[in-house]
Write a structure and sequence with these properties.
Length: 206
């Protein structure tokens, strides 16, 4: 099975199993929980500082690169079985600056439109673009190639991926119930589950 974008292929034998993705994501997160919390704190602090100084406008220009950096760290640690995080790799996304910024702006615009009409379209759009940032650096795609590759793959199992995205939103909502402090570990946990889903369906490049 193959997408029309470059040579992205689904594994010959893959399983869409949300429970498995969450379980494996949790294990990755829990095995290095302290580093993941520090990573989420650094990520959140940068967003809060830049957002505060620019009335939110600056987020459009750093959120995408930081998301790439976050996924890069998770994947790099899985591939290399690192015992120690390199937090400086959070800046790795700036190597893909234009693509990550444009992807971020378009995804946010689509999400605003989707949630403006109804919650369900918003969740579906969120699901469509779960793998965009990973595709940008794992396969050196531009923003539109990555968005289309993610959308086409997710479309094959849109119901399951919509449930997956909804679970992420519920986790974030639970995090906000703890004075927003709970969001810190949730950021890492959610991203770990996305990496697991990507690896199960497509496979992390060597």
């Amino acid at each position: 099975m193959e997408t029309e974008s470059k040579t992205i292929k689904l594994k010959e034998h893959y399983e869409v199993n949300i429970g498995k993705w969450i379980e494996k994501g949790w294990k990755i997160f829990w095995a290095d929980i302290y580093n993941f919390i520090i990573l989420s704190l650094i990520y959140s602090a940068i967003l809060l500082i830049v957002g505060g100084l620019t009335a939110g406008v600056g987020l459009l220009f750093i959120w995408g690169p930081l998301n790439i950096g976050f996924f890069y760290i998770i994947i790099n640690n899985i591939k290399n079985k690192k015992k120690r995080f390199d937090f400086s790799e959070l800046a790795k996304g700036f190597d893909y600056y234009i693509s990550s910024v444009l992807a971020n702006i378009l995804i946010l615009a689509f999400l605003l439109i989707g949630f403006a009409f109804c919650i369900i379209p918003g969740i579906v759009i969120l699901a469509f673009y779960l793998f965009v940032y990973i595709f940008i650096f794992e396969h050196n795609m531009d923003f539109w190639e990555a968005m289309e590759a993610s959308r086409k793959i997710v479309s094959k199992h849109i119901f399951e991926f919509s449930v997956f995205a909804l679970i992420h939103l519920i986790l974030y909502f639970i995090g906000t119930m703890f004075c927003f402090i709970g969001i810190i570990p949730i950021i890492s946990l959610v991203n770990c589950t996305i990496v697991v889903a990507y690896d199960e369906l497509i496979g992390i490049t060597e």
